[in-house]
Amino acid sequence: MSPEFVIIAVGVCVAIGCALIGSFLLLRQLTLLGDAISHAVLPGIAIAFLLSGTRSPLPMFIGASVFGVLTVFLVDLFLRSRRLHEDASIGVVFPGMFALGVILISRYATQVDLDLDCVLYGEIAYAAWDLWLIGDTSLGPKPLWVAGGTMLLDLVVVMTLFKELKLVSFDARLAAALGYSPLLLHYVLMMLTSITVVGAFESVGAILVVAMLIVPPATAYLLTDRLPLMLVLASSLGASAAVLGYGLARWLDASIAGAMAVVAGLQFLIVFLLAPAHGVIGRWLTRRKLLHGLAHDLLLAHLQIDRPTTAAAIATSFGWPVARVENGLTQLVELDAVSRDGNEYRLFSRPSVGERRD
Questions:
Q1: Cα 130 to Cα 1, 143, 266, 321, distances in angstroms
Q2: Neighbour-count burial of 26, counting CB atoms closer than 10 A to its CB (0-12 exposed, 13-18 middle, 19+ buried)
């Protein structure tokens, strides 16, 4: 496999896995918690390394998952105390966990290849040369195995628990009434988030993971109101951001992970402006159309069949500019709703049925 293929494949796998999980985090308004977990698992990675003496995926997954769940538990604990809101609870737990991880790495792991640059920024450009060796046998790039396995795990869990996750995301009380456990599903989702984050740490870093957890789902959310289509769109947008981001990084000779995040941000900006239903321009056009319709209704209500009036008189009555009134009346004339005789306007008078027969 060529290095370019490995880099793009790792980026695509990470993007799809993050998009699947991030869509449910977005629907449950837990995107900040996903960001917190992506940093709070740092002490779990450090402790797993110190206990195992290796950077193999399994100890890292276990350590990150434990601290991811611990983060969620502490946030819920502070939230249920009713003394802190959710954002404040996250703001208390997230820096404390992250600081603990920084201390552990800077104190005990400075002499090995485990540092803040590794877990925060990553370097996807080296993914093709980080081989998974079993004895003298090479199974290929380890980041590709880890990212691909994480993506498949996310896909299998989402497909298996789609109905339950959908129900909990939209109405947790109804899910509980139907016999499902919202708390259990909540922790399953948080554990998946932890595994997805740590699976991408070494290859792409936490910054790109946070971007892919939030930006592609947010972009898809502006394009559709259907959850299955949202998952497909979020995954497609994340994958395309990875591919186009690699091309942008090659063109600019810049950070690959940073370029992928930038492309994802540009996708969101374009959709935010141009989305048919929820985009800024689309909503402006809709409001403009509604205002035009309202103006037409007001003009029609003011006009009479047997009493013509001028645009200036209507403008004085409404307090509108004369040009606006004339423009509205001209459109109504084109629609055959209003007739014009010189400077005077009246409701269009159609002949009755008897008059047409005569």
A1: 13, 7, 31, 70
A2: buried
Residues 6+ positions from 196 with CB-CB distance below 8 Å: 17, 18, 21, 150, 154, 209, 213
Q: How far is it, in rounded angstroms, from Cα 331 to Cα 317?
A: 20
Could you read off the pLDDT of 106-128 as tens digits, one per residue? Answer: 777 665 555 555 555 566 777 77
Asked if residue 332 lies in contact with residue 299, where contact means CB atoms within 8 angstroms, the answer is yes
pLDDT at 264 exceeding the cut of 70: yes
Q: Would strands 338-341 and 309-310 be described as parallel, antiparallel, or unpaired?
A: unpaired
DSSP type of residue 124: G
Residue with tokens 């737990």: 93
Output Rg (C-alpha) for the chain, integer angstroms: 29
| Burial class of 110 by CB neighbour count within 10 A (0 to 12, 13 to 18, 19+) | exposed
* pLDDT single digits (tens) 301-338: 777 666 777 777 777 777 777 777 777 777 777 777 77
CA–CA distance, 206 with 39 (Å, rounded to integer): 7
Report pTM.
0.75
pLDDT value of residue 233: 94
Q: Which pLDDT score is estimated for 20?
A: 92
Distance in Å from the first CA to the final CA of the chain: 86
**pLDDT at res. 289:** 67
